[in-house]
Each structure stands twice: as structure tokens, then as C-alpha cells.
Amino acid sequence: MKRVLVICLGNICRSPIGEELIRQQGIKHNLSLEVDSAGTIDWHAGKGPDPRSQEVMRAHGLDISDQQSRPLKAADFEHFDVILCMDQQNMMDAKRIAKGPAELHLFVDGVDVPDPYYGGETGFQKVYAMLEKASIHWIEQWSK
């Protein structure tokens, strides 16, 4: 089983979407995964995903309403095999939190996924499209 953690800043916009898209692609391809998400800050700990993240996922037939934000912990670097970061800043922040055997990668290779929090409704659809394409790529890589 591959253990995957998806991180962004607050764990309410991008990483909840990424978590569920990785999970769904894993199911679709019969890949055994444990998937979770976290934020590099704890401002939203215990809260659900942003309503706009939930809305874009519902529009695609997916429900993330049961997810809860949590902060990234040092122990995550020991537990998870792969940590997928939404942007370079998240990756730098994660490296400051802890070191461990987990591989750190950008969720979208070579590209920062923009934070849609202040970007209006279309920002969430753009993020969904970016993460959907990248999640397919990750599952194909892990299935080899």
C-alpha cells in the first residue's frame, strides 16, 4: 500500500480536492492507497473544506464534506511515502517542519497550483482541472 499526503497552506481549498482526486483515481485503477491531506498552517484545524471546494467537487459527483483540516506534523514524514505539495512555498515550509524518508514532490510537476481562496469561483474549477490531470499522472506512475 502506498501512503500519500497532499498538502497546501490551510488544507481547505487545494489539498482536499487533491486528496479526493488521488483517492478516486486509485480506486479506478485498483491501486491500494492511503490518502490524507494537511496544511502547513493550523489556522483552519478541525474545519471542513472551503464551500467552493466542496461545490466544485459536487459538480463532478464527489463529496469531500467529511474531510477536516489538520496541520502537517513531523510524524507525517515517517508515516507517508509521498507528500505532494501544491506549490514551492508549501514544499519549503514542509521541509522546515521535518525531515524523513517521505518523498516530497509538487502535485503538478514543475508548476505551482494557484491558491483559489481569493480568486473567485472560476479559480476552483481551474484548480480542479489541474489536479485531476496530475492525479491521473501520479496513479499511472505508481501503477507501474
Describe, in short, the structure shown.
The protein is α/β, with parallel strands linked by helices and 144 residues long.
Question: What this model shows, in words?
Answer:
This protein is α/β, with parallel strands linked by helices and 144 residues long. 42% of the residues lie in helices and 15% in strands. The chain contains 5 helices and 4 strands, in the order βαβααβαβα. The protein has helices at 14-28, 51-59, 76-79, 88-97, 121-143; strands at 2-8, 33-39, 82-85, 103-106. It has a 4-stranded parallel beta sheet with strand order 2-1-3-4. β3, α4 (88-97) and β4 form a beta-alpha-beta unit.
Give the N-to-C terminal Cα separation: 14 Å
Please tell me the total number of domains.
1
- CATH architecture label: 3-Layer(aba) Sandwich
Q: Based on helices, strands and strand pairing, what is the structural class? A: alpha/beta
Strand content: 15-25%
Shape: globular
Instruction: Look at the structure and name the CATH superfamily.
Output: Response regulator
Radius of gyration: 14 Å
| Poorly predicted spans | none
CATH class: Alpha Beta
Order of helices and strands: EHEHHEHEH
Tell me the major beta sheet.
4 strands, parallel
Summarize the amount of helix as a percent range: 40-55%
| Order of strands in the sheet with most strands | 2-1-3-4
Mean pLDDT: 96
Q: Please provide the count of β strands.
A: 4
Number of helices: 5
